[in-house]
Amino acid sequence: MRGGEEAAHPAEAITAGAHLTDEARSAALERQCHRCAGCNAPLTAGSTHFDIRPPVICGGSPLPGNLEALCPFCHQNFMRRVRVRLAGHRNK
Ligand SMILES: [Zn+2]
Q1: CB within 8 Å of 46: residues ≥ 6 apart
Q2: Which H helix or E strand runs over 73?
Q3: Residue-number span of the structural domain to which 54 is assigned
Q4: What whole-number distance in Å separates Cα of residue 1 and Cα of residue 16?
């Protein structure tokens, strides 16, 4: 695994937008007591992912208040669900 597959996901690039400032990330972490929003696992600086809920590509707004901190495991699950939802929209 060299990370090549991850870079190919467009949803990843959108949620990692310029609106997510260090301040917004810190605020999200503090709001969640530095725990994952999905599974409540303790988050460390090197293993924290940030996502917008609802996703920008599904109509969400990239506001700091919509930011959620996730562990790598929940982040992957989250992105998978977003892709499934997008695929469903395209098929309709
Ligand atoms: Zn988690």
Answers
A1: none
A2: helix 72-91
A3: 16-91
A4: 21
Q: Distance from the CA of 70 to the center of ligand 1, in angstroms?
A: 5
* Domain annotation covers residue 48: yes
Q: In angstroms, what is the span from residue 67 Cα to ligand 1's centroid?
A: 15
Q: Tokens standing for 16?
A: 């990692």
Cα-to-centroid distance, 62 and ligand 1 (Å): 21
Separation of 59 CA from ligand 1 center, angstroms?
Answer: 23
Q: How far does residue 11's CA lie from ligand 1's centre (Å)? A: 19
What are the pLDDT digits (tens) for 6-32?
444 444 444 445 567 888 889 999 999
Residue 8 resides in a domain: no
Number of domains in the chain: 1
The pLDDT tens digits of the residues spanning 29-48 come to: 999 999 999 999 999 988 89
pLDDT tens sequence across 59-87: 766 666 788 999 999 999 988 988 998 89
The environment of the single-atom ion ligand 1, i.e. residues with CB closer than 5 A, is: 36, 38-39, 41, 71, 74
Predicted structure pTM score: 0.65
